[in-house]
Amino acid sequence: MNTLSLLLSRLPAEAPAVLVSVQATRGSVPREAGTWMAVFADTVLGTIGGGRLEWDALAHARSMLDRGTAAAEQTLRYPLGPSLGQCCGGEVHLRYTVVTSADAPALRLRLATRQPALALFGGGHVGRALVQVLTTLDMPVHWIDSRDEIFPGALPDTVHCEHSDPVHAAVPALAAGSRVLVMSFSHAEDLDIVAACLARQRTQADLPYVGLIGSKTKWASFRARLQARGFSESELQHITCPIGIPGIADKRPEAIAIAVAAQLLLLGNTP
Question: Taking the model in full, what pTM does it have?
Answer without folding.
Answer: 0.76
